[in-house]
Amino acid sequence: MKRAPAVLGLLAGLLGLGSTGSHAAEQDFVTIQRGRYLATVGDCISCHTAPGGIPFAGGRPLETPFGTLVTPNLTPDPATGLGNWTDAEFLRAMREGIGRGGKRLYPALPYSYYTKATRDDLLAIKAYLATLNPVVNPVQVNQLPFPFSIRFSMWGWNMLFFTPGEYRAVAAKSAEWNRGAYLVEGLGHCGACHTPRNSLGGENTTAAFSGGTLIGWHAPNLGRDLRTGIGGWSAEDIVEYLKTGRNQRSAASGPMAEVVYFSTQHMTDADLKAIATYLKDLPAVTPAVSAAPPLAETDPVMVAGKAIYLDNCSACHVSSGAGVPRMFPALRGNAVVQAPDGSTLVRVITQGVRAASTATAPTAPAMPPFDWKLNDEQTAAVLTYIRNAWGNAAPAVSPSLVSSLKRNLSPDGATP
Description:
5% strand; mainly alpha; globular; disordered N terminus; 3-stranded antiparallel β-sheet; single chain; 2 domains
């Protein structure tokens, strides 16, 4: 589904949010607990915790197409964290992307999604954050190069790509559907990773949830397209995936493993079912890059790729590409495998990957890296093969694409 890193998500709150500094004892317990849950839905801890750092204390670098941003401290430290902001200032940041003193925030804080959250939900999150132990951790958030470092440019970006406003229920839909829409389009900010973006970083809303590529990962299509989306998944498949990190068809890895670990596995079954209900009702949006007819099995690249696959991959994913349910993902009919963008596959082959570990499915199967064994031509051949075998259909992967992507991979890019 995200990160990001969601991501995809993988992408979460940035740039100096704050709180009133109210003492935890003065807060309403029910509100705080609700805020804790909603902060989990929003996956705040993922982006606001540096590797090996204190949760919510910030300092995690976030790669963007325009440079690096570093997440701020969300603990209630008055000097470096969320110590002094009023409710109004917090709401303005979360709903309008404007910080204290009119400072414009970057959309790495997904305020274009958080704007749909209710006032009470956002203030509940703020109440929860105010109960954290204060941590002194000054962070230089904006590390973008000129001219992207000029915050005023966000005024124009907002004019083009941002429409503020709280989510409004659709009367013709069920309460469950509307709850799912509120979570997906609001705090869950799923489209931040799963929607394609233009050269300015704005979302292509006409292709919402049809898949997007960010920092070398491709977040797949969430629509009903049978080849590149989740049209073949049942609502139960979606719930199982979000709760356990895997199902009979797929396993969460890369940035999505982080989303499952920190966020979705902790959500209520009712909310997961609501998300599934909403996603199952999304249209079958076809990606802008359509697949050509599958390559013939006699194609030289397919012949070479099949041999490499049988030698290196079939022990886990089996010769038919069916995989082992809930252990090794099926490659046959897999939306990630058939995505128009092969970035994720190159990354997985090159650096290896580990599936999500959750309370209900603690074993986290891993795939080892093959960069030591396969050169660019061999990697391209085996990926081209799995993208066009067993009824799959997707563009061939070229050795030049593999080489280009490998040069840009971060050292720890495979494992969140």
